[in-house]
């Protein structure tokens, strides 16, 4: 593995890794809080940084069959959620390329 490059976000409200505090996403990129992850409530984000995307796999989720890849914190390796790579159902295709972050694994920082 090469040198890990860390992104630092700036914004009024930032979500970060609960374990190591590395920045993950801006509140501006939050699409929905109505998702269910492995550990309960999960958030859907349009963009996410400082994560490593794992192997793609077929997964049968509440909303049908999807191809997803688990995502891990680039700094502490904690599993944070997953990325949608493909959705079979037409109504679910808006999620493709977007990220799920488990609420339990992230925290929100408020700079104001
Ligand atoms: Zn971390």
Topology:
Blueprint: E1 13-17, E2 23-26, E3 30-37, E4 40-45, E5 51-61, E6 64-73, E7 79-87, E8 99-102, E9 106-110
Antiparallel strand pairs: 1-2, 1-9, 3-4, 4-8, 5-6, 6-7, 7-8
Bound molecules: zinc ion.
Zinc ion is lined by residues 17, 19-20, 22, 73, 75-76, 78.
Which key features would you list for this structure?
112 residues; mainly beta; Metal Binding Protein, Guanine Nucleotide Exchange Factor, Chain A; six-stranded antiparallel sheet; three-stranded antiparallel sheet; 9 strands; 55% strand; globular; binds zinc ion
Mean pLDDT: 92
Could you name the CATH class? Answer: Mainly Beta
Biggest pleated-sheet summary: 6 strands, antiparallel
Spatial sequence of strands, sheet with the most strands: 3-4-8-7-6-5
CATH topology value = Metal Binding Protein, Guanine Nucleotide Exchange Factor, Chain A
How would the global form be characterised? globular
Separation, N- and C-terminal Cα atoms: 37 Å
